[in-house]
Amino acid sequence: MKPFIDAHAHLVHNFDSKHLDEVAESGLVKQVWLLPLECYVPEFEFAGNDEVLEVGKRYPGLFVPFGYIDFFQGPDQVDRLKERGFVGLKAIRPPKDYNDPAYFPIYARAEELGMPVLFHVGIISHRRQDQLTIPVPPGPAHMKPSMLDTLGDLFPKLKLVQGHLGVPWVNELFESVFYYRNISCTVTGLVDYDWLIHNLDRRTSYGESFSDRMMFACDGFYGRPEFWQRILSLAEFTRMFFQEVGKTYSWHDAEERFMLENARRLFPEFAALGEK
Predict the structure, then answer these.
(1) What single string gives the DSSP state of each residue in the chain?
(2) pLDDT for 61-88, tens place per residue?
(3) Does the N-terminal peptide bond of residue 168 adopt cis geometry, omega within 30 degrees of 0?
(4) Which long-range contacts (CB under 8 A, 24 or more apart) does 106-111 make?
(5) CA 126 to CA 144: how far, in whole Å?
(6) Domains plus CATH for the chain?
(7) How many CA atoms lie within 13 A of 160 on its CB side?
(8) pLDDT band at 129 (very low <50, low <70, confident <90, very high)
(9) Among 4, 43, 74, 180, which residue has the least CB neighbours within 10 Å?
(10) Model pTM?
C-alpha cells in the first residue's frame, strides 16, 4: 500500500499508546491532522484538546494537533491555543452561522497567528441535547459550505478548510473552490462520489484543477487497533476509485496529489513540523 496523508481525523479518549507507536512505525500514513471533539459528552470517548495536544507533541510532524474553537468564548482563546502548541483550529456545531459577525474576531486572530481553520460543513451526526456539552440546535443549518465564502473574502490570508463535502449542499462547495484560493476541502464522511466524478476535473476561476484543491481524509479514529484497518481500507478504496473509476476521466492522474501531495503543497507549515 502506498502512503497517504489523513487530513481529517480524530483521536479516541484513553488511546492505546502502543498502537500509535505501531501506526507511526508503519510508514503508511505520513501525517494525520487530529481534530478534538470537545462538544460531546465523555461517554462517546472522543478525545479533546488535552489528549490531541499530547499526541501531537509525542509524534511531532506525524500527528498535527488542532485546537477546538469554543464559539461561546472570545478571540483570546486562539492565543491560548497557539501558546500551548496547537497549529490549527477545529470548528464544529456553532450556536450561530459560521459567518455571523460575532465570530469575526476569532477568525481575525487566527489569521494574524497563521492558524488554519477546518470547519465541519453539511450533514452531521444526530445528537440529543443531553449528548452535547454545549447548548446548540441540532442539525447542520449553521454549518453550510457557502458560509465560508464570506470568510474567504474578509480574511484572505486565513486558510479555510471545508471538512467533508457539505452534503446535502455539495454544490455550494463548487463556488467556494472556484473563487477562493484560501479555501480547500478534505473529502471524507458522507461522500457524494457522483459529484466528485463530474467535478474533479473542473477548473477554478484562476485556472487550478478542483482535484488540486481537495485532500484525502478518513474522518476516522486513531488510538485503537480496531479502527486502523478501517482507515487503511478507506485509503485503498480511494486509490482504486482514481484508478478504476477515473480511468476514463481526465482526473485519473490526480491520485497521488489527492492522497498525499496536495496537503503538503497547500499546508507546508504542517509538513515542516517534524523538522523543528
Answers:
(1) ---EEEEEEEEBTT--HHHHHHHHHH-SEEEEEE---TTB-GGG-B--HHHHHHHHHHSTTTEEEEEEP-TTS-THHHHHHHHHT--EEEE---SS-TT-GGGHHHHHHHHHHT--EEEE-S------GGGBSS---SSSTT--TTHHHHHHHH-TTS-EEEES--TT-HHHHHHHHHH-TTEEEEE-SS--HHHHHHHTT-B-TTS-BGGGSEEE----EESSHHHHHHHHHHHHHHHHIIIIIGGGSGGGGGHHIIIIIHHHHH-HHHHTGGG-
(2) 999 999 999 999 999 999 999 999 999 9
(3) yes
(4) 106/69, 106/71, 106/74, 106/75, 106/77, 106/78, 107/151, 107/154, 107/155, 107/158, 108/75, 108/155, 109/75, 109/76, 109/78, 109/79, 110/78, 110/155, 110/158, 111/155, 111/157, 111/158
(5) 16
(6) 4-275 (3.20.20.140)
(7) 30
(8) confident
(9) 43
(10) 0.96
Q: Which three cell numbers stand for residue 187?
A: 473529502
The stretch 19-41 carries a mean pLDDT of 93
